[in-house]
Amino acid sequence: MSGALKAVSAPVRVNSFLPYGRQAIDDEDIAAVADALRSDYLTTGPYVSRFEAALAKTVGAKHATVCANGTAALHMAARALDLGRGSVVVVPAITFLATASAPHMNGAEIVFADVDPETGLMRPEDLEEALSRTSHADAVFNVHLNGQCGDLEAIADIARAHGAKLVDDACHALGTAYVARNGGVSPIGANRFSDISVFSFHPVKTIAMGEGGAVTANDSGLAKRLVRARNHGMTRDPADFANAGDAFDENGDPNPWYYELIEPEFNWRASDIQCALGLSQLNKLGRFVARRRALAAAYDALLAGCAPIARPCARTRPCLPAWHLYAARIDFARAGISRAAVMRALQAEGIGTQVHYFPVHRQPYYARRYGVQALPGAERYYARALSLPLFASMTEDDAVRVVDALKRVLGL
Ligand SMILES: Cc1ncc(COP(=O)(O)O)c(C=O)c1O
C-alpha cells in the first residue's frame, strides 16, 4: 500500500511486536512530566486544573473532573447520582467489567441489556427490553463500544421516560462525535443527551495518563458532588459548613485549618504528574484521532476481500468515531479454526489481539447473583469479536502485516 498515512511519531520504544493497543509518548510528554516532577506539586497542583479546563473545552462540557482511572470515574458518577442500595442501573452486556461493577460496588443492582450483534452497541429496543425486566431503573450506563455510538437521542428519550439518569461510559470514545437527527454535531462528553460522561486514559485508550480518568457534566451541582466524590467527601466551602462553632472564628471568618465531612468517599484523585501527561497528550488528540481513523479505513480496505469469513465491524449512522479499537468480525466456525488458535498463531507472528468483551452478565459473579438472561445479540457479537492492533504510532505497513497474517491463519 502507499505510504500516505503517516504514523504519529513516538520516539520512546519501538519493538516489532504489535500489541492490540498502546500509548504514543513523545519527548513533549516526557518534558511535561519532568516539569511536574520539578515543581512543588506531585499530587493536586496546577496541572490538574489546567488539564480539566482543556478537557472540558475539548469535549464541550461545562465541567471536567479528572480522577485516578475510568473505574473511579464510573464510581464517582454513581456516587454523584446517588445510585446506591435500592437503585437499579441498566448496563449493556458487552462492556468492560467496570461499567457494571462500579455502580454495583456502590450498592446498585444491575440489569444487563442486550446489544446489536454486529456493533456490540445497546439499541433502543434492547434498552426497552431490559427495562421491561425491572420494576424501575434509576440510571442507564450506556457504552460507546470501540469508539462508536448508537442512537443516543432515542436512548435518552427512553431513559427519561422511565425517570432514569443517563451516563455515557465514554472510556472508548474520547474524540468521537454524535450527529443528531437535526444534523447538529456534538462531541461525546458534551452531555448533549446525557447527564454525565466518563472517560479512561489508560495507555491503550486514545490518550494516556498511565492511569487516569475523568467525568464531565454540565450541571454545577453535579460537578460539585463529583469533586467531593473524588476527595474523601470533604468540603472546605464555608457555605457547606454545618458546625458553625468549630468552623468560624469570633469575627465570623472560616478557620484556616477547618474542613468538614459531608459523607465518606474514597480518594480517587489523579496526581499532577499524571495530569501533566494527560494535558500534553490531549494537545495531540486531533492527530491521534486522525491517525486512528486512517488506520481503521486502511483495515477496512484490506479486509474488503475477506468476507464472509472476516469483516470490519458494522458502522453506525449517526456517529463520527475516534476508533479506540479495531474490532474485526470473524466467523471462526466457517473458517474451521478456533479463536484461541487464531490468537496464538498471530501471537507467534508478533501480533497481539484481544477480545472485547466476554458478556458481563455471564461472569460467574453476576450469573450467580442474577441468573443468566438469554441475550442473543451479546452472544453473537462476542462469538465473532477479535480486536486487531490499533494505535497512533502504528504504520500502514503494520496494518498490512496484520491482515496478511490473519488471512494466512484463516486460510484465506
Ligand atoms: C468501557 C470501559 N469502561 C470502563 C473502563 C475502566 O477504565 P480504567 O481501566 O481506566 O479503570 C474501561 C477500561 O478498560 C472500559 O473499556
What is the radius of gyration computed over CA atoms, rounded to a whole number of angstroms? 22 Å
Large-scale geometry: globular
Which hetero compounds are present in the coordinates? Answer: pyridoxal-5'-phosphate
Count the strands? 15
> DSSP strand (E) fraction?
5-15%
The largest sheet is: 7 strands, mixed
Low-confidence regions: none
Mean pLDDT: 96
Q: Report how far the terminal alpha carbons are from each other.
A: 19 Å
Number of helices: 15
Helix coverage percent of residues?
25-40%
User: Would you tell me the structural class of the helices and strands?
Assistant: alpha/beta
Strand order, biggest sheet? 1-9-8-5-4-2-3
Encode the helix/strand succession as letters.
Answer: HHEHEHEHEHEEEEEHEHEHHEEEHHHHEH
What does this structure look like?
There is one protein chain. By secondary structure, this protein is α/β, with parallel strands linked by helices. Helices cover 37% and strands 14% of the residues. The protein has 15 helices and 15 strands. It has helices at residues 27-38, 46-59, 70-80, 97-105, 124-131, 152-161, 220-230, 244-247, 272-282, 285-303, 332-335, 339-348, 364-370, 376-383, 396-410; strands at residues 63-67, 88-92, 109-113, 139-143, 165-169, 177-179, 185-187, 196-200, 213-217, 234-235, 260-261, 310-311, 319-320, 326-330, 385-388. It has a seven-stranded mixed β-sheet, sandwiched between helices. A three-stranded antiparallel β-sheet has the order 7-6-13, with no helix packed on it. Helix 1 (27-38) runs antiparallel to helix 9 (272-282). The longest helix has 19 residues, at 285-303. The relative contact order is 0.18. The model has no long low-confidence stretch (mean pLDDT 96). Bound molecules: pyridoxal-5'-phosphate. Pyridoxal-5'-phosphate binds at residues 69-71, 95-96, 98-99, 143, 169, 171-172, 200, 202, 213.
